[in-house]
Design brief:
Order of helices and strands of chain B: HHHHHHHH
Strand content of chain A: 25-35%
Number of helices of chain B: 8
Helix content of chain A: 10-25%
Oligomer: heterodimer
Number of strands of chain B: 0
Radius of gyration of chain A: 24 Å
Shape of chain B: globular
CATH topology of the largest domain in chain B: Rna Polymerase Sigma Factor, Chain: A
Strand content of chain B: under 5%
Order of helices and strands of chain A: HHEEEEEEHEEHEEEEEEEEEEEEE
Structural class of chain A: alpha+beta
Number of domains of chain B: 2
Largest interface: A-B, 50 and 68 residues
Helix content of chain B: 55-70%
Number of helices of chain A: 4
Shape of chain A: globular
Largest sheet of chain B: none
């Protein structure tokens, strides 16, 4: 067999593109220039409440008609019509139950999708120099309404009181803090309205407050389109936050409180699948910008090592990335360690340790 | 519609590039999810604060499609293929779905797919591919070399 020469590559590309479906229709909602109305707007909240009331009202009827059984007699329920397993960050399954209650108005519960999101948790690094927590992103997937933005789902996950961080990780967002709505303006700022409990901060001191904000900031923003977030309570900017009454009434970005973090943090989830390279990205402010990576197996043997140079160092923050190709993650469970070498003794410092998850179901179950 | 300032509005931009963006997305994520990727990418681009200042909107949309496809990827194509193979001969596949080609492409990373498509489908020189992908020309050459290697391994 002749291998993949240029002609064969061209044939492959042409055959691939030849499978193209018709273009989707123009996405009309992009013409809206005002901030998008979140699903928690009063109108939608009212509609949602109406659905809940109808469903609750139906339960006694169903129980009565079914002699104690919850079989929905006299109603029709449509099972998931198109379900595929997986952990994609976009639509993978549709669940659209339609419930008809005798004597009641027909109500349709909004279709829901499995949506993949990334949220930022914290870790106390090994051999820490500054004593600040590290940020570590985690990929998870959960059911969401189709019009929920990824960021809204991520923020609601991070503030979910049932959030269960993996062993060795933590969240400084206390129970009771809730996201009321998320809107994205046209200036690259996400406006996140929080409930009153947000004003109390983390409840664990000033560093805890900074850490809580950093978790929320990194989860709410991205590096390109929406690099800033403005937190409001009751629609008003926050001038007194947490233990020390921090004024956060202006939009915040990923650099605002970065100095209150470990000198190495991660910005991409350490997971993947198939033949993809594992790409680990992060930010670091370390000596000579030198960042190291190790993959260790279950017996703590180093099975892969690499180092790179961040775009800035020794007093300034720079970005870094590792591209790990041709490593068999499927058959070798490993943990990634990202750190820098102390100039004093050469030992790994500020070490972040994250298990690599790999495969079609890669990611973490963070909610019960 | 062309506005009074002579700038195409979003719908006009979309209609100008929707077909080629859908083809590009098909090359990146397969035919099943290409439309979703294009829709998400256009929503993302049109709502970007930079959009009004973008001089080369076509190139920006291509970059956004790649960005959304990369987020979207996470083994979607692998799973779709597994489902097709599991469903067996009784499954009703659209005639245009070429399982062999998709099985080959499944072996490539998203960056490798983009480099292959921009080089061999869009016929762009390596410098333009690098510019389009936001990487160095060396990185493009590495992606292409690795794509060939993966495809050759698949052949053998």
């Amino acid at each position: 067999m002749s291998g993949y020469d240029d002609q064969r590559m061209k044939d492959l590309a042409d055959r691939l593109v030849a499978m193209s479906p018709e273009p989707p229709p123009f996405p009309e909602e992009v013409t809206v220039t005002q901030p998008r109305v979140s699903r928690s707007s009063p109108v939608l909240m009212f509609a949602g409440a109406a659905v809940i009331v109808l469903v609750l009202a139906a339960i006694p009827l169903l129980l009565f008609r079914g002699g104690g059984s919850v079989e929905p007699i006299g109603s029709t329920t449509t099972s998931p019509v198109a379900t595929t397993e997986g952990s994609e960050p976009s639509v993978t399954s549709t669940v659209a139950p339609t419930t008809t209650v005798p004597g009641e108005t027909t109500s349709t519960i909004a279709p829901q999708n499995l949506q993949g999101v990334i949220i930022f948790l914290t870790q106390t690094p090994e051999n820490s120099f500054g004593g600040n927590p590290a940020l570590v992103p985690f990929f998870t997937h959960l059911v969401a309404a189709p019009d929920d933005s990824v960021e809204e789902v991520a923020l609601r996950t991070l503030t979910n009181p049932s959030l269960a961080p993996p062993a060795g990780f933590d969240s400084h967002v206390p129970a009771g803090v809730e996201v009321v709505s998320v809107n994205s303006d046209t200036e690259g700022v996400r406006v996140v309205d929080m409930n009153q409990a947000f004003l109390g901060g983390s409840g664990s001191g000033l560093l805890g407050d900074f850490t809580m904000l950093n978790q929320l900031i990194y989860t709410a923003t991205d590096e390109e389109l929406y690099p800033q977030v403005l937190f409001t309570v009751g629609g008003e900017p926050v001038t007194q936050f947490g233990t020390d009454g921090l004024d956060i009434s202006e939009p915040l970005d990923r650099e605002t409180f970065i100095d209150q973090l470990n000198s190495v943090i991660l910005t991409s989830a350490v997971s993947g699948s198939g033949s993809e390279p594992l790409v680990i990205t992060g930010l670091a402010n370390v000596f000579e910008a030198a960042v190291s990576l190790q993959l260790v197996d279950l017996e703590d043997n180093v099975v892969y090592e690499d180092f790179t140079t961040a775009t800035c160092g020794t007093g300034c923050w720079g970005s870094f990335s590792f591209h790990i190709e041709d490593f068999d993650f499927e058959s070798t469970p490993v943990t990634a360690k990202v750190f820098w070498h102390s100039p004093e003794d050469g030992e790994p410092a500020d070490v972040i340790t994250v298990p690599v998850t790999w495969g079609d179901e890669a990611g973490w179950d963070l909610l019960p | 519609m062309i506005t009074a300032t002579g700038v195409m509005d979003n719908e006009q931009v979309y209609r100008s590039y929707a077909v080629e963006l859908t083809r590009y997305a098909t090359g990146l994520v397969g035919p099943f999810d290409a439309a979703d990727v294009v829709t998400d990418a256009c929503l993302k681009a049109f709502s970007s604060r930079k959009w009004s200042e973008v001089s080369n909107r076509r190139a920006y949309l291509y970059r956004t499609v790649l960005s959304v496809a990369t987020d979207h990827h996470r083994s979607t194509l692998s799973r779709r293929l597994r489902e097709i193979k599991t469903a067996g001969p009784e499954s009703t596949l659209p005639q245009e779905v070429d399982v062999d080609v998709l099985s080959a492409v499944e072996r490539l990373s998203m960056q490798q797919r983009a480099a292959v498509l921009l080089t061999y489908w869009a016929d762009l020189p390596v410098e333009a591919v690098a510019s389009q992908m936001g990487v160095s020309t060396g990185a493009v050459k590495r992606h292409l070399a690795r794509a060939r290697k993966h495809l050759e391994e698949w052949l053998s």
